[in-house]
Amino acid sequence: MTEFQQGWREFHIHDTVAAAAKEGRTSADDGNNQDEEDVIYASGINLFGNIQEEEEEETMHFSFPVAEAGGCDESTRSAVVVAAAEKKNIEVTLKGFSDYTQSTGLAVWLGSEILARFMARHPYLIRGKTVMELGSGLGLAGITSHHLDSKTSVLTDGDSLVLNDYLKFNANQNDRRQQDTIGGDGHPGAIECHQLIWGHRGQSNGQSPLAQFRKKYGQFDVILAADCTYIPQSVEPFWETIDFLLDTEVTGKDDDTAHGITPAKSPSTPKVIYVMEASTQAKFEDILDSAKLRGFEWTIDTMPSLYEKDETPQDSQKEHEIYTFWRSRCS
């Protein structure tokens, strides 16, 4: 895959949407999807050109232990130590490809699994919240948030092939509302999929697709992102989208301060949970600088490596980093 192909979904599609808007075509209001692959093929670029015809789709299974009472207890506002006996597992099944080097958005990237495991360790950050995932791909992180009792989980991707052929299928087959046995209070939240083009480029009926998306869904308590800022040009639209869609309301701030609970670990603070494990042309310091310019602070959590020691001994010694961002005024 060329560098240009790798960055297509996050940046060049903005020009596609702008052109479509000039022609009076839009997708946000009626739920239809901008056919960006038409433009890709017309340009002689096949985003998924590395997928060989003989490759077959796989069914992948993931199981994450959940700290049922982990983190901040709402009744005591204090840290809770979770015993092993108090844990359960989340089970997620996905259709797609396991080799992300061959299939970009049609595979599960390592960052998504790390993000899913982090949420399972801190379920109080997700429970009862409105959640959106950017660059969902096959949807592992967003589906995990749904199983952690989010109020709503909206999974988004800019590529309509990924969205229509994989993301919607995976969300539907993991929808707790479709399952016979439902835990918790018996009323699982909604899970939806929608195309989302980052940034405010492109106008139709006086609004960008991003503005139309916010008109439909509102703002979110938690925004998830993993391995989805490939090129430098994607960084600003990425943060522009987050800044526009992340909620600004904070509840329980004084109570959090009194009990020494940081914004990153407070259920009351709107936040972005971000993991970047994949190789990228975008410099990570530029990603952080862009966040800072928009008034975000952050903290870093770590997790033990998910790499197999026998297969990748060097990588197995590394810890994975999970960034949690929040607006400075929420501190």
Automatic annotation (TrEMBL):
Origin organism is Cylindrotheca closterium
Residue ranges spanning the membrane: these are: none
Please name one Pfam family that this protein belongs to: Methyltransf_16
What SUPFAM superfamilies does the annotation carry? S-adenosyl-L-methionine-dependent methyltransferases
Q: What is the protein name given in its UniProt record?
A: Calmodulin-lysine N-methyltransferase
Instruction: List the InterPro entries.
Output: Methyltransf_16 (IPR019410), SAM-dependent_MTases_sf (IPR029063)
